[in-house]
Amino acid sequence: MRYNAWAVFREGLRGNRGWGPMWRDPAPKAAYDTVIIGGGGHGLATAYYLAKEHGLRDVAVLEKGYLGGGSIGRNTTIVRANYGLHGNSEFYSHSLKLWEGLEKELNYNVMHSQRGIINLFHSDGQRDAYARRGNAMRNQGDDAELLDTEGVRRMLPYLDFEQTRFPIYGGLYHARGGTARHDAVAWGYARGADRLGVDLVQNCAVTGIDIEGGRVTGVQTSRGPIRARRVAIIVAGRSSQVAAMAGLRLPIESHVLQAFVTEGLKPVIDHVVTYGMGHFYISQSDKGGLVFGGDLDFYPSYAARGNLPMAEHVIEAGMTLMPMIGQARLLRSWGEIMDMSPDGSPIIDHAPGIEGLFLNCGWCYGGFKAVPGSGFSMAHLVATGRHHEPAARYRLDRFRTGAGLMDEEGTGSQHNLH
Ligand SMILES: Cc1cc2nc3c(=O)[nH]c(=O)nc-3n(C[C@H](O)[C@H](O)[C@H](O)COP(=O)(O)OP(=O)(O)OC[C@H]3O[C@@H](n4cnc5c(N)ncnc54)[C@H](O)[C@@H]3O)c2cc1C
Q1: Whose CA is nearest to atom 19 of ligand 1?
Q2: Rounded to the nearest whole angstrom, what is the distance from the C-alpha of residue 72 to the centroid of ligand 1?
Q3: Overall fold of domain 25-75+182-251+343-417
Q4: What is the mean pLDDT of residues 252-267?
Q5: Which protein residue's CA is at the shortest distance from atom 48 of ligand 1?
Q6: Residue located nearest, by CA, to atom 53 of ligand 1
Q7: Ranges assigned E (strand) in 215-322
Q8: Bridge partners, 31 (sequence order)
Q9: Do the domains at 25-75+182-251+343-417 and 114-173+253-340 have one common CATH topology?
Q10: Closest CA to 409 of 355, 349, 338
Q11: Which of 27, 200, 202, 235 has a 20 to 30 A CA-CA distance from 406?
Q12: For the chain, which residues make up each domain, given as ranges?
């Protein structure tokens, strides 16, 4: 069923009895052309574009839990294209353009809201860095505007401009940045892929990867073995564990990232705002909750829950920037596992030495906004065997050779030091 105003009207008259399930619930077949491990945003988007752009429909997405139950449904929903380095800049630019047409493309309301992002700066050095980044964004064809203190005050009057320790010097304004409804993105891609014939198999954990003579031949799963000519590992925080099933050791560490949401309030924060002197960022959800977060808990872990010291740190930063937040009651917090790469940039590549096996991981804090671009580029790689131009620099071997590292945010884990 196509979603449109007429369908809503008709179903309203019929007691909403005509809405069918959004996707089928197929049992896994014994063999597929292509198997995607992981039913998160990136896995589902890859399946969709494989079917849509490349006509590959003998595809299964194998998800150990339920679709959208991983990071895709637990992030803080920020979508932006404000990267400065060659490699990242063109990739995120391409991804944002896909976002801008996504609701039409999927016939699904993903609540993409281009409300604008403002990255605050608090020193001359930070201003220079943001000016450089803004110029790179504009060179890439995206939007960026450097605001001074008064410019920020006009847009964000609720900030504490009187803080003497970290006065607000200005901000980099990216008007096309914003937010989207995170799980709707997973559901939209899932529905789109299912309609094109992809099997979405839930409660199906991959437990082994079969390799014969240097070529992938299938996977072992909790629902039996499945043969496949091509296998793509797209499991975000579990990337190291699943790659180990193929004998690979990835330069990825899994860390917990927390997020927080307050009770619903009347509209008060119209943009996404990031603090330059502490790791803190905030936006307001359409339900009214103030959604905010900060940095990693800073030790590798597969426990999808957070710890109090980081909660305290994030809330302190929030109180410094906008003391009014102290009036809001915190409703809940949660944590989920991030696939941290050493340079903060991702990997979209062939698995070394294993024909037919592909890797997509290393999204760190920023993989939600990457979902459309990553799915598009990954599908191109899997279908054609060649790298898609905007993602061409996301090679695994940059961590071995040191050539082509893209240390964009400097927040990746630091194995290479040891
Ligand atoms: C608190 C928080 C805030 C964030 N905020 C932002 C943000 O504002 N903007 C942004 O761009 N990014 C953000 N991110 C990052 C973003 O959410 C992730 O980078 C992205 O969602 C990861 O890709 P994914 O959606 O494919 O992962 P997931 O949804 O985690 O998908 C991976 C899937 O693989 C499945 N899987 C794992 N092992 C197996 C197996 N053996 N067999 C079968 N299936 C398996 C998992 O069950 C999971 O469903 C945030 C993340 C967190 C945790």
Answers
A1: 367
A2: 5
A3: FAD/NAD(P)-binding domain (3.50.50)
A4: 96
A5: 70
A6: 336
A7: 215-221, 226-233, 253-264, 272-274, 281-284, 289-300
A8: 227
A9: no
A10: 338
A11: 235
A12: 25-75+182-251+343-417, 114-173+253-340
Q: Residue 158: pLDDT band by 50, 70, 90 thresholds?
A: very high
Q: What angle do CA 160, 333, 185 make, to 5 degrees?
A: 95
Full DSSP string of 173-207? EETT-EE--HHHHHHHHHHHHHHTT-EEE-S--EE
Cα of 218 vs centre of ligand 1, distance in Å, is 24
Q: How many whole angstroms from 43 Cα to the centroid of ligand 1?
A: 10
Beta bridge partners of 231: 35, 357
- The pLDDT tens digits of the residues spanning 111-140 come to 999 999 999 999 999 999 999 999 999 999
By most ligand atoms within 8 Å of CB, the mutation choice from 44, 63, 64, 75 for ligand 1 is 75
Of all atoms in ligand 1, which is nearest to the CA of residue 44?
26
**pTM of the predicted protein model:** 0.97
DSSP string, 79-148: E-----STTHHHHHHHHHHHHHTHHHHHTS----B---EEEEE-SHHHHHHHHHHHHHHHHTT---EEEE
pLDDT, tens digit, 9 for 90 and up, residues 229-240? 999 999 999 999
Contact 91, 348 (CB under 8 A): no
Above pLDDT 90, what percent of the chain?
Answer: 94
For ligand 1, the distance from its centroid to the CA atom of residue 51, given in whole angstroms, is: 22
Specify the amino acid at residue 164.
Answer: T
Nearest-angstrom CA–CA distance, 364 and 225: 31
What per-residue confidence (pLDDT) applies to 152?
98
Which two structure tokens, joined as six digits, stand for 277?
Answer: 């002197």
- Choosing from 36, 204, 365, 377 the residue with most ligand 1 atoms within 8 A of its CB, the one to mutate for a pocket test is 365
Angstrom distances, CA of residue 165 to CA of 120, 160, 161, 403: 14, 11, 11, 39
pLDDT of residue 412: 55
Question: Confidence class of residue 417 from pLDDT cuts 50, 70 and 90?
Answer: very low
CA of 41, closest atom in ligand 1: 25
Q: What is the pLDDT, as a whole number, of residue 411?
A: 58
**44 Cα to the center of ligand 1, angstroms:** 11
Q: Does domain 114-173+253-340 correspond to CATH entry 1.20.120.430? A: no
